[in-house]
Design brief:
166 residues; alpha+beta; seven-stranded mixed beta sheet; 7 strands; 19% helix
Length: 166
């Protein structure tokens, strides 16, 4: 399939972590709009987020999300949660994108589509950083040090664009 337009990176911002449903959530926002994601879209996404989170399993309760406002009517929320000590659990939500089963074009009306997709090219950059941060702060601690959830929460991909980071 040939691309229909020229590819350009999007803006990546990193709001501070929040607590949702007993989990600490690191946040990444992706958009082409220099003003950022509209507050009503952000509120709707984070109100829907508890539906995407796994049950506690003894792993430190940490999640990172990518909230992406598309250039059309779509908004996407990808929730990546650490479970089973070193496994990344994924659930996603979409709004305003009828092709994914959304009821209308409203970017604040989130649903959880039944797709096996983990993210588009603009949503994937945080995954490698978060994997390395989890290993660095939670798994690769020399004995007798304990995992450092606070250090993990403070270690985010820097703001900028979704790519061009080499």
């Amino acid at each position: 399939m040939a691309p229909t337009s020229v590819f350009t990176e999007k803006l990546l911002t990193v709001p501070p972590p929040i607590e949702v449903a007993g989990r600490w959530v690191k946040r990444y926002h992706v958009t082409s709009d220099p003003a950022g994601i509209a507050p009503e879209v952000e509120r709707a996404a984070y109100a829907f987020l508890p539906e995407l989170l796994p049950e506690p399993d003894g792993t430190p309760p940490a999640t990172f999300v990518v909230l992406h406002r598309g250039d059309d009517t779509g908004a996407y929320l990808n929730a990546y949660s650490w479970v089973w000590d070193n496994v990344l659990h994924f659930r996603g939500a979409a709004a305003g994108q009828p092709v994914l089963g959304c009821p209308d074009l409203d970017p604040t009306r989130f649903i959880a589509p039944d797709q096996p997709w983990i993210g588009c090219v603009w949503e994937l950059p945080p995954i490698l950083h978060e994997r390395d941060a989890w290993v660095r702060h939670m798994l690769a601690r020399p004995a007798p040090e304990v995992p450092d959830l606070d250090a993990y929460l403070a270690d985010s991909l820097p703001e900028g664009t979704t790519g061009d980071r080499s």
